[in-house]
Amino acid sequence: MSRIRDNALSIAFMALFLVCLAGQALAGMLDYNEQQLVGGGQPVGYLDYITSSNFAVNVAENWQSEYLQFLLFILFTIWMVQRGSPESKEPGEEGAESDEKQQIGRYAEADSPAWARVKGLRLWLYSNSLGLTMGAIFVLSWLAQSVAGVASYNAERLGDLRDPVSWSSYVTSPDFWNRSLQNWQSELLAVLSMVVLSIYLRQRGSPESKPVGAAHTATGVEG
């Protein structure tokens, strides 16, 4: 039970993710089959749908925007601050910070990760591992969106008796950028809302909020 308690947050989000993904697949299949019947096509089963380009592009376009959001937030908060926000460092503390504050090299603690004690490439990689991983997932999911997207797009074109397009033509098409930008703008708005609203509003007990009695100007303080 202690292991469940210690990992409750990740377990809860994983469970919700899987439920929503399964629900999206079911709803997407029903919607896809309705369009198939209207167009004179044949409906597909659940397994066929979740392995289709239609489902893949819908999933990938959301994943890439989420990881772009986190990547930008991780990188921007190194060098940019927002006075009064718990999501920001204090003004004047911009930058990658000293080795002592980051507890690396000779300042590493007894329980510090092994790669925090070394120098050179391994230390650089570990020091930037979160941003590098988020960036890699973003690039891969955006690539997956483009590959699944061109397959889905061409399937629609062939259904309308139009010629298919190449991958390079698709990634410069309005359809691809409409899918990308409609997700990017919503994710960026969500981050902006969190950064600004957390200056003035509170949620008691949440580490994403300042303490209820903290001043609006208090920065980098979590409840």
Summarize the structure.
The protein is an all-alpha fold and 223 residues long. Helix content is 63%, strand content 0%.
Describe the structure.
- This protein is an all-alpha fold and 223 residues long.
- It has two domains: 1-51; 54-223, no CATH class.
- Helices cover 63% and strands 0% of the residues.
- It contains nine helices and no strands.
- Helix 4 (53-79) packs antiparallel against helix 7.
- The longest helix has 31 residues, at 8-38.
- The model has no long low-confidence stretch (mean pLDDT 92).
What keyword list fits this structure?
223 residues; mainly alpha; 2 domains; 9 helices; 63% helix; 0% strand
Set down the secondary structure blueprint:
Blueprint: H1 2-6, H2 8-38, H3 46-50, H4 53-79, H5 99-102, H6 121-127, H7 129-159, H8 167-170, H9 174-200
Separation of the first and last Cα atoms: 26 Å
User: Which class best fits the helix and strand makeup?
Assistant: mainly alpha
The residue-averaged pLDDT reads 92
Helix content: 55-70%
User: Which stretches are low in confidence, meaning pLDDT under 50 for 5 or more residues running?
Assistant: none
Principal-axes shape call: elongated
Compute the number of strand runs.
0
Task: Give a short account of the largest sheet.
Answer: none
